[in-house]
Amino acid sequence: xxxxxxxxxxxxxxxxxxxxxxxxxxxxxxxxxxxxxxxxxxxxxxxxxxxxxxxxxxxxxxxxxxxxxxxxxxxxxxxxxxxxxxxxxxxxxxxxxxxxxxxxxxxxxxxxxxxxxxxxxxxxxxxxxxxxxxxxxxxxxxxxxxxxxxxxxxxxxxxxxxxxxxxxxxxxxxxxxxxxxxxxxxxxxxxxxxxxxxxxxxxxxxxxxxxxxxxxxxxxxxxxxxxxxxxxxxxxxxxxxxxxxxxxxxxxxxxxxxxxxxxx
Length: 264
Description:
Elements: E1 3-6, H1 9-18, H2 20-32, E2 41-44, H3 50-60, H4 65-90, H5 98-104, H6 108-112, H7 115-136, H8 140-154, H9 158-169, H10 176-198, H11 218-247
Antiparallel strand pairs: 1-2
Helix pairs in contact: 2-3, 3-4, 4-7, 7-8, 7-9, 10-11
């Protein structure tokens, strides 16, 4: 668990219900020596969520915890849009995609209050951009910047760290192996969401971050994951259909957004 390393199950569950804000407040009190939980808690600094909580902690020294989290989310939103636009330019994508980056930030992660994921998203996009630039012209300077960006990404969010690593490991340019790896990745995501949404057993969902997000019931959680699962399933099926068409020697169509905009 990021921030305080909790040794008492009841206290741990209470902080999980309260969300990120409570954990940052407890972490700040521990550092100031004013926490009544001092004998029960220790700080775990080796966690893949350290940067998001740490930045919130630093800001909470000059403002309220709620304002600190909202400030971090505002900065993350601007960084997400900027990094997405830079990536789109790097890969020569259609400029019309830029407008989609604005609502793209306010998806499931925002609704459910995945604070550390939202903080890590722009860092992950910038890491992919830096890796692509390094692959074009590898230098010691670019390698050092890429290394520290990767290190920062690890301490932002473990899942984003893994996905960004997979993205930069895929072969560059169109090719059957790149498309096959992408199909496998989407299929794995589809299976995970299918299991959460439709699998047997009880599900417990949490997502409150001090005023943004909410704590969903099992039904609403399954519905939300079910919608995402269906979307992943559709994409996975389409990608495997494309793989079959390629294996049979049939022509495959290029997505319209991969085409340059018309000059008309």
